[in-house]
What we know:
Elements: H1 25-36, H2 39-46, H3 50-64, E1 69-70, E2 78-79, H4 81-116, E3 121-127, H5 133-143, E4 146-152, H6 155-163, E5 169-174, H7 183-188, E6 197-211, H8 222-227, E7 231-233, H9 240-251, E8 258-259, H10 269-277, E9 283-287, H11 288-293, E10 297-311, H12 318-327, H13 330-336, E11 342-344, E12 351-352, H14 354-357
Parallel strand pairs: 3-4, 3-5, 7-8, 7-9
Antiparallel strand pairs: 1-2, 5-10, 6-9, 6-10, 6-11, 6-12
Helix pairs in contact: 1-2, 2-3, 4-10, 5-12
Amino acid sequence: MQSRGVHLQYTFQPDGQRGADLHNPLFDLLSGLREHGSIQHAAKAMGASYRHVWGALKQWQEVLGEPLVTWVQGQPARLTPFAERLLWAETRARARLTPHIEALRAELERVLADALDGDQQVLTVYASHDLALPLLREQASAGQRLHIDLRFAGSMDALRALGEGRCLVAGFHVPPLNEGGNLFASGLKPLLKPGRHKLLGCTRRRQGLMVAPHNPLALNSLADVVSRGARFVQRQPGSGTRLLTEHLLKQQGLPPPVESELHPAEDSHNAVAAAVASGAGDAGMGIEAAARAFGLEFVPLLTEDYFLVCMKDALDHPGVALLREALQGDAWRQAVTTLPGYTVHPQSGEILSLTRALPWWRYKAPKSKLTA
């Protein structure tokens, strides 16, 4: 059988591209057919002629050497099992690679911006995966002449990058906590130091369970996931969401859930959502915006704060000053409202101390009283 190669390319266009949005005519066609059930309706939705879509379908079948659609008289057209597997594999791969594609596009944009205008400020940011930060990058580029070189990593890895000088700003998230003896304190305190690090308010976002449409297993809590043996799609070690999952399990006295054998730990909310949407898992922890983007049901568990952090002596850096301006602008507030489950942090762009933003930071457990 002749091998099928995959070729990637990119172009420069006058209009900007949001995030890692990529289009491929084959997968656009397959998605249209699955959604609309006929070439005629798919062609109409795509703004193409029946003849064009039919010809493209035949061409792709010849290239791939496999049938893509089956027809039964009087019934809607259906994708073949091969086409279904191909479509879901592409969806999961795209979701898994989104942070890396965004980083590559941002780097190419930075190179282009430097070539066109050497006066534009560049700010490297390592951050836990988030759907609002690409919007912030767009606002900063348009309004503040600031290019944010955004690179997604787990919360712990982002903070390590800050400590090692690989970035000027890092992003991480924490749930509301009342006590100091928790997993977040253990994970964050070695990486952040009061007085040395300063936080910037960014967003608040809902975290919860992402489950199949209509929640067929009635998974309304982590306890349900564990007790019913639901296949759980986990995040990668070192991510804030993985830490959050472990924190909630410990808080409720629950054992680890059964991890999906069909899927490894994922490194973004979108990748987890894609895995659940494809049926490779029954549930996963993630943000509401990712669940909605993949047509999933969302079970909210808590609202968490997303902070940006820099060294105290970096507050005077021109790039950080422009970043704060973007965070305090009306354009940023309006952009955040487009994401389900998001709100702007009440102190967006303000400089916050660790102990002010995280009241549990100074917490000390009361000493036990000794009795005779």
